[in-house]
Design brief:
alpha+beta
Length: 150
């Protein structure tokens, strides 16, 4: 009986990371709040070098965007084909609110965010306007894949 072979992992370039972000719609956001590490799933869109999302006002990570501009976060997305055949990207970036124009936000950014959110969830309709809209400025993206047999 032969010993199990270690699984091969290989890094992906930025284009590979961007492709993973573009193909998927659900990721996990990691952040700290009140001295605790938190991780939550989030529906997102990848566009223009930003991750865009909506959530309820008061949600843990959305509240961070309202507390201060420029909260550091980590965002992660996985694709699993089978067994050890997978791809993953980890983004480090800064969470920013997308402020409504009535609150001083840029009207073009607001409209763009609403359009992206409505495309993610066409059933959201007016709910997109009653949500906290946020975006993550991607400062660093590291991706890799596993190519072992599953």
């Amino acid at each position: 009986m032969s010993a199990p072979q270690p699984q091969a992992f290989r890094p992906l370039d930025r284009a590979g990371a961007d492709a993973i972000l573009a193909r998927n719609r659900v990721g996990r956001i990691a952040y700290t709040r009140r001295g605790r590490l938190e991780v939550e799933p989030v529906l997102y869109a990848w566009a223009d070098g930003w991750l865009w999302a909506r959530t309820s006002y008061g949600c843990g990570w959305a509240a961070l965007a309202g507390e201060s501009h420029g909260t550091p976060v980590v965002f992660e997305v996985d694709e699993v084909d089978a067994g050890f055949r997978w791809r993953s990207v980890v983004v480090r970036g800064v969470l920013h609110p997308v402020e409504h124009p009535a609150d001083g936000g840029d009207p073009a950014v607001w409209v763009h965010a609403v359009e992206l959110v409505r495309a993610l969830d066409p059933g959201a309709g007016a709910a997109a306007l009653r949500s906290a809209l946020v975006r993550i400025a991607v400062e660093e993206a590291a991706a890799r894949e596993g190519g072992g047999e599953g």
